[in-house]
Amino acid sequence: MSSGAAEAVVSTLHQVQQLTAAMARLDEKVSAGHPSSQGGQLQRELDEAKREALDAERRARDAERRLHESAVRTTAPDLNSPSVMAAIQAAVQQAAKAERERMEAAAAQHLQQRQAEADAKLEAERAAWTTNRAWKT
Q: What is residue 131's DSSP assignment?
């Protein structure tokens, strides 16, 4: 957030406070029943102060909105920048590598299990053959 923009918001809000206080004073004078010649002038001044206060409030809201938009733009990453694209590509490649390693490990484990089963079956067949041969002799 730039200090100039923040100062503009603070200044505008201060102006709104001053105008609100001036309106309250003028409203009190009108309500106090000053003579009608002054009452008309006071009413015009009160109306002008109200218009100025509304205008100052609008400027404050606009400045606050611009400040918020500026903050959002400066904090949001530019997804099309080369550094962000490179980081995304590196993350995708790392995820693909991790998935490939996981699949290779699962395949190796499956092969080891199948080899162990085949070895056990072969050993059982040899034992049966040896036992069968021993009976024949």
A: H
Please, what's the b/e burial string for 21-32 (b: 16 or more CB within 10 A of its CB; e: otherwise)? ebbeebeebbee
* Position 133, amino acid: R
Taking the domains of the chain in order of start, what are their residue ranges?
Answer: 1-76, 79-137
The SS3 of residue 36 is helix
Reported confidence tier of residue 67, pLDDT bands at 50, 70, 90:
confident
38: left (phi over 0), alpha (psi -120 to 50) or beta: alpha
Q: List pLDDT tens digits, range 76-110.
A: 666 778 887 888 888 889 988 889 999 999 999 99
User: Pick from 52, 59, 50: which is nearest to 23 by CA?
Assistant: 50
